[in-house]
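User: Thanks for the earlier help. One more: Acyl-CoA dehydrogenase NM domain-like protein. Can you show the sequence and predicted structure together?

Assistant: Of course, both are below.
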Amino acid sequence: MSVKDDIPAIFLDKVSPRGLEAIQKTKDFVDQYCIPADKIFKEQISQDPKIRWKQYPAIIEPLKKKARELGLWNMFLSKHYKEGPQFTNLEYGLMARYLGRCHTGPEATNTSAPDTGNMELFAKYGTKAQKDKYLVPLMDGKIRSAFLMTEKGISSSNALNISTTAIKNARGNYVLNGTKWFASGAGDPRTAVWLVMCKTDNDESNMFRNHSVLVIDVKHALASGKAEVIRPLSIFGYDDAPHGHCEIVFKDYEVSSELMPETILAGVGRGFELIQSRLGPGRIHHCMRAIGAGEFALLRIAHRANHRTIFGRPMNRREGFLMQYAKYRIEIQKCLLLVLNAAHKIDITNAKHAQREIAMAKIETPKTICDILDWGIQVFGAEGFSQDTELAQMYAWNRTLRIADGPDEAHLAQLSRREAAKFPEVDEFFKSVESRVEAISKL
């Protein structure tokens, strides 16, 4: 089946021939290699706690090799970055839609979070030394990374609350103190760099310049004994080993400038600028992968309906089932249009000017996909929330998206403030209408 049939007509002419070819290759790669590989990946994760977090499923490397042969590598680095393959956010979004159908696809194509956002930051803000040490091997798929932002016991959706401190000592090095958690990717034995959002100043006159992003060499930090990965945190019971979502404590860890002269990314006080730059396209990636998960869930549901009889009648002939299925097809299409519109807005302007569109997509998509996955679990019955289908784990991943990269409430608050700012224009509109009534009546 051609991917042209899956792309909304309003966006089809925005996709280049080269982009269309890559989207088709992505779909075929996912269907032919990644979805079958998911089962192998899961089987290759050790159940022995001594080595569960020390080795990675072997199936990933041949998948990566195949993806590179197909030219499916680092597709997320858009036309804004000279280091990337120059696809638009819209084009990569359509690729991410298919990558979201499986677990292995993103890493196989080197488009996994949090590496994607971290690579964007290094590409946009990194010095030559930072790029040579971290961006080059990240883009080559030789190392992994983590972004340490969320903190225990505070509302991290408001980054002003972030309290992990980095204070300069007499030697001019930053000394780090604080606790981070839900650091995705920090459990991976290949993770070589942490980007840490921390407080470097306490200037009340400009609170948005108090935070910075530190570049931390993981091996050095752990060897010091003053940075420790305390534990992997589970999400609905899944620990996502060996990737992990970890709690990390810093106790007087000194970030040595001898290892890397530029220990701050982009400069002191630019933390807010960096996280906004990172999160805009990242939200599009998450939403498009979520749509892919929802579409895969509908495939599973249809397959179940084809082989299940309810009180002597096939499920796929029952009107109630068919109507619900059609309803969710419509819901996915609505989300697809919202997300692609946001992606295109980023392409023709930038993430800052697309905040309204990004917020709408981020609010609506994860909730809708969770509803679809929840229905899929119900259709399967007890099997739906067991390990024998992908639905339960997909639900866990997608439920986190309603909190990750900003909870629903934060995006709704931002969107509502933007909309409320336009209310005075409404009064002017109706005043204008009233002023024209008499003139129009004389036509």
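User: Great, one quick takeaway?

Assistant: The chain has a mean pLDDT of 95.
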